[in-house]
Amino acid sequence: MAVRLDATDRKILVELQRDADQSLDEIARNVGSSKTPVWNRIRKMRDAGVIRQTTVLLDPDALGLEACFFVLIRTSEHEAEWQRRFLEALRARPEVLEAHRLAGDIDYILKVQVANARAYDTFYQALISEVRVHNVTALLSMEVIKSTTSLPLKA
């Protein structure tokens, strides 16, 4: 269920998505408010679950994680126990940045960030040793055209 947000709430969220490290004074100045009301609004949005967490974005290249693979998985297994094991295996692997269950011909898509093709193969071999999959296609991203964590909010 969507939470009702007014224009000021949305402006605050835009500012936080742009740079959550800025001070309350900076956010208040940028949204045309004062510090205490901004702090109260942020607290309410946290309590309502609109703001899930505050985190830091790292540069994968700077950390030697230069290969991003999109992994398409088809499976003939759809039992609850298989799904439980599959989800457990994905959650246990830090190289899986995202995992989505899809409608259509492909059952799952994963975003996997690793150092290189050899590291991807190690990930792949470990995954298929834990859960049976029908077909896996790995697509190497050659270039990041756009990457953002910001949701499209109209301020």
Radius of gyration using CA atoms only: 20 Å
Strand percentage = 15-25%
Number of helices: 5
- Give a count of the beta strands, DSSP E runs of length 2 or more: 4
Q: Give the spatial strand order of the biggest sheet.
A: 2-3-1-4
The average pLDDT value, as a whole number, equals 95
CATH class of the largest domain: Alpha Beta
The H/E string reads: HHHEHEEHE
Low-confidence stretches: none
Describe the largest sheet.
Answer: 4 strands, antiparallel
Which secondary-structure class do the elements indicate? alpha+beta
What is the CATH homologous superfamily assignment of the largest domain? Lrp/AsnC effector binding domain/regulation of amino acid metabolism (RAM) domain
CATH architecture of the largest domain: 2-Layer Sandwich
Could you say what the CATH topology of the largest domain is called? Answer: Alpha-Beta Plaits
* Total number of distinct structural domains: 2
Roughly how much helix do the residues carry, as a percent range? 25-40%
Measured distance between first and last alpha carbons: 20 Å
Please state the overall shape, judged from the principal axes of the Cα atoms: elongated
Pfam families: AsnC_trans_reg, HTH_24
InterPro entries: ArsR-like_HTH, AsnC-type_HTH_dom, Dimeric_a/b-barrel, Tscrpt_reg_AsnC-like, Tscrpt_reg_AsnC/Lrp_C, Tscrpt_reg_HTH_AsnC-type_CS, WH-like_DNA-bd_sf, WH_DNA-bd_sf
Protein name: Lrp/AsnC family transcriptional regulator
GO molecular function: sequence-specific DNA binding
